[in-house]
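A student in our group prepared the protein record below, which I am reviewing. Here is the record exactly as it was handed to me.
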Amino acid sequence: MSNSCENWFKLTLIAYVNLWAARNLAVVLPHPWEQYLKTNKSVKITPSLVQRDFYRIILTLGTMATSPKPRGYSTGRIKGYKKTPRTRHQVIKGTEQKFSKITKNWHPRRRSLSIISIFQ
């Protein structure tokens, strides 16, 4: 017996054990064409009838899984929220003299010579 067959056997066995454990919680929900299930109140609950009602059973029991986190675009700012304005700062103008000296002596072919001469 191969490994995949063994895994499949275990999976089906677990599914049937779940159906067997939930048989006391199941309610018979017959289809409209199943008249014989409506009249007979002592219906033996089969795994297929439990499987038919399994969604309702799971909803009543709940789940231990946490709800998923929101993904994608953010919801945005809360309605009515007012942002506080940014604090304004004065402009510092300390480097203006050095910059004017560099631009005054600037030449495309003698770039390095003019900058070196300013800093000496």
User: Anything to note?
Assistant: The chain is about 45% helix and 0% strand. The longest helix spans residues 3-21. The CA atoms of residues 31 and 37 lie 9 Å apart. The mean pLDDT is 79.
